[in-house]
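Input record (Table S2, row 280):
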Amino acid sequence: MPDVSLMTDLPTAAAARPAKPHLPDAQTVTSVKHWTDRLFSFRVSRPASLRFRSGEFVMIGLMGENGKPLLRAYSIASPSWDEELEFYSIKVPDGPLTSKLQHIQPGDEIILRPKPVGTLVVDALLPGKRLWFLATGTGLAPFASLMRDPEVYEKFDQVIMMHTCREAAELNYGRELVEGLKDDPLIGEIVADKLVYYPTCTREAFHHMGRVTDNLSTGKVFADLGIPPMDPATDRAMVCGSLAFNVDVKAILEGFGLREGANSDPKEFVVEKAFVGDGI
Ligand SMILES: Cc1cc2nc3c(=O)[nH]c(=O)nc-3n(C[C@H](O)[C@H](O)[C@H](O)COP(=O)(O)OP(=O)(O)OC[C@H]3O[C@@H](n4cnc5c(N)ncnc54)[C@H](O)[C@@H]3O)c2cc1C
Ligand SMILES: NC(=O)c1ccc[n+]([C@@H]2O[C@H](COP(=O)([O-])OP(=O)(O)OC[C@H]3O[C@@H](n4cnc5c(N)ncnc54)[C@H](OP(=O)(O)O)[C@@H]3O)[C@@H](O)[C@H]2O)c1
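Output record (flavin-adenine dinucleotide complex):
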């Protein structure tokens, strides 16, 4: 649920600004929350016809100065049952889209192409017992959707969310989401003790430290959680981070005997890039 204390009153905010031209595939922003100077989340109205599988992404954006839509891929962070859509976004200071998108307010419109796609879907995995979500940075977004999907808990006995950021403040969106889930009237009972949250930082003192890759390859995460190492007979994984992260995690998962799958060829793990490019 959005934090109502941070929502601007919608009709007042919209009325205070001059009318803007109606965008193609327009959706209205309903709330915005800034988490750090480089991270924010926002919610928009959901097109009545939009059906998606938790974990998929869509193209969203704003009208560019040349009059053409400026669109980027964004994982839908809300679950498929939510009546609105939520997104979790980076703010790239000179990024063509996010230098502008970071200033959206309730009542504003964004463009949203209602064609969801992606590989981080439960259907792309063979049945298993434990499901690992492995993310860095905004790579958490697809898992913010999947962690709120009852189907995930119907299909797996345990779901382990490993999320790593440089600093603790960058974990807050995910931490608040996980903490809120246990009390969620819709899926709190289903999630119960099945969801295990394992956040880590790499550049600031935190109760769990280290890269996802190191915590998997040294066995630290298995020891901390008191569980056996990954086994292709029982464990499934979904990976979303920078290209370097995805490459390194893939090698570790393959070392455990897991194989990469796809929508058309379900196997033990699936991977998706959280963004294209390696430096801001
Ligand atoms: C499948 C897919 C799903 C995505 N989902 C999300 C999402 O849910 N949330 C989100 O914030 N972004 C997501 N992205 C990235 C997004 O598409 C844009 O790149 C991002 O919004 C920045 O847009 P921009 O035009 O401001 O800058 P761009 O020109 O797109 O990017 C400029 C540079 O910024 C860096 N960068 C871009 N995005 C990120 C990021 N998310 N984290 C760290 N560095 C980044 C890269 O180095 C990139 O070269 C996704 C990308 C892909 C391919
Ligand atoms: N986060 C910030 O405060 C910040 C501020 C300004 C600019 N930037 C720039 O923004 C871009 C993205 O930054 P980001 O922090 O979102 O993403 P990032 O640099 O990919 O780091 C996110 C987390 O992933 C870890 N990581 C990176 N590569 C990995 C790999 N190959 N295997 C396992 N773990 C890995 C990092 O650990 P390590 O710490 O060990 O690398 C960090 O904990 C970078 O180009 C960065 O220079 C970031």
